[in-house]
Amino acid sequence: MDVVLDTLRSEFSDLADPAAFTRIVLRLALAVALAAVIGYEREMRGTAAGLRTHMMVGLGVALLVATTSESHMEPTEVGRVIQGILAGIGFLGAGAIIKQDEKEQVKGLTTAASIWTTAAIATAAGLGREATAIVATILAIVILALLLRLERHVARRRGAAGDPARRGEQDVDAR
Predict the structure, then answer these.
(1) Closest CA to 173 of 118, 120, 112, 90
(2) Contact yes or no for 94/112 (Cβ under 8 A)
(3) Cystine design at 111: which of 19, 47, 81, 118 (Cβ 3.0–4.6 Å)?
């Protein structure tokens, strides 16, 4: 029985230190909460990637980054892990992009960018850069919500359908 208990203690050794446990829980919870803020905004717009997708991206990225950085790896090794995560998230975001040949429009660019931004914010949270993650989330919401109003206002003033500057590659959120 002692062997079983010793094995359990060693397998859960990352939970033995209350400070490390608190750090991990705080970083993961913050990453999920911040991802939820962005995901909620995307959910309200009816995009393909909404609340749950953004939260899962935030959790996954923060988990990989936090556990990697807490495992006392060299900074260059942590950097390689982050590089791999962000490249992989790029492929996930690519799945949200749809090109429509008949109108020469590209849909989903903002959703793809929000997934990638969520991963970057979760990376900051996972590394213990909580204030940076919070500021970046505020900026992301300003860009997604407030600047959309400005973009619509400008489009109305230009008469978006006939304006050559509005043709071609653009992001049109699903409503």
Answers:
(1) 112
(2) yes
(3) 47
pLDDT at 65 over 90: yes
Separation in Å, CA 158 to CA 100, 151, 164, 169, 172: 23, 11, 10, 17, 17
Q: Decide: pTM greater than 0.90.
A: no
Question: Could you report the per-residue pLDDT of 118-136, keeping only the tens digit for each?
Answer: 999 999 999 999 999 999 9
Q: Which amino acid, residue 91?
A: F
Residue 142, classified by CB atoms within 10 Å of its CB into exposed (0-12), middle (13-18) or buried (19+), is: exposed
The predicted pLDDT at position 35 comes to 98
User: How many angstroms separate the Cα of 139 from the Cα of each of 4, 54, 63, 135?
Assistant: 50, 16, 23, 6
What distance in Å separates the CA atoms of residue 62 and residue 118, rounded to the nearest whole number? 10
User: How many whole angstroms separate alpha carbon 85 and alpha carbon 119?
Assistant: 8
Q: Are 64 and 81 in contact (CB under 8 A)?
A: yes
